[in-house]
Amino acid sequence: MSSPSNIQIPSRRALLKVAAGGAAAIGIGGWAAGSAFGKVPLAAQQAPGFYRRKVGDLEVTALLDGTLTFDQGTILALVPKASADSVKPLNDKYFVPASGAVTLAINAYVVNSGDKTILIDTGSADKFGPTAGGLPLALTAAGFDPASVDMVVLTHAHPDHAAGLIDAKGAAVFPNAEVVLSETESKYWADAGTRTRLPDSQKGFFDIAGASLKPYAARTRLIANAADVAPGISSIALPGHTPGHTGYRISSGDQQLLIFGDAVHIVEWMFEKPDWTMAFDVDPETAAATRKQLFDMAASDRILVAGMHMPFPGFGHIGREGNGYRFVPAAWAPL
Ligand SMILES: [Zn+2]
């Protein structure tokens, strides 16, 4: 049996030599030889993020609004059941950087039937700094004009989901869209008592929710659990993160996708530890119970899922792992 030191890994130079015929034609040979071919300035900025999947006859486009990175101290303060010791094995297993900093994506999804363009969540606009707020760029890059959006459907009204409804002046970004959200969610954010009850660090969420929904007041539709939102889209109450937090089941033919919003924030921790809730969960106990029910259903029924804070584009499956679960990113699929 050979020891690892006996394993011969071919050098890049050797690989390039083997590939030389084809590589030269596509410019890789130029890199190896140091010629000017292929000399392009480094971009130094990320491209707008969008990615499509087919669900039956519907085309679903994931949009990346951006990312948020929390240092270890901050994220542990936000997840009270976690500690530096208890996250260590998970961080090692899932390749969280040695600093312990955790990065969350902010995703949104467009469902296009060919007749209707429906946007699920709107990203964070200018509320979370320079690493987020890219949804308008991603939307345009994916071929959608804000004016072509017929319906904006919200999982809930936290700022990283609803702030993109308005521009910096407070005007509607989507001039022709009906806004759809849960009746429970609407009532929660319309109640002045909510602002009083929120911790000081989250009182701004209340103000942003109100400002974001306001220009759409005359064209807002409130829905119940299991409501038909649009052909092929129905609501699933996923309470706890907020009282009216809602997932959406996208169905066409024999295929379906369950967009679960903020049922999970930290992919590296919360599948194995589904009872680890966040400070942003309005009712942590209910949030944990909802999450476990969701995981159990998605694992049993082998449903394709997507989430707003899953690594972009966020599509995958939920499998069982020990006493918890695991997330398996979905493979690329043709349209
Ligand atoms: Zn969120």
* Straight-line distance between termini: 46 Å
Q: Which molecules are bound besides the chains?
A: zinc ion
Number of helices: 12
**Beta-strand content bin:** 15-25%
The residue-averaged pLDDT reads 92
Classify the secondary structure makeup into a structural class. Answer: alpha/beta
CA-based gyration radius: 22 Å
Q: What would you say the CATH architecture of the largest domain is?
A: 4-Layer Sandwich
The CATH class of the largest domain is: Alpha Beta
Note the overall shape: globular
Overall description:
With 335 residues, the chain is of the alpha/beta class. It folds into 2 domains: 30 residues, no CATH class; 281 residues, Ribonuclease Z/Hydroxyacylglutathione hydrolase-like (Metallo-beta-lactamase, Chain A). The strands form 2 sheets. The protein has a 7-stranded mixed β-sheet with strand order 1-2-3-4-5-6-7. The protein has a 7-stranded mixed β-sheet with strand order 8-9-10-11-12-13-14. The N and C termini lie far apart (46 Å). The site of zinc ion has 6 residues, from α7. The site of zinc ion (ZN) has 6 residues, from α7.
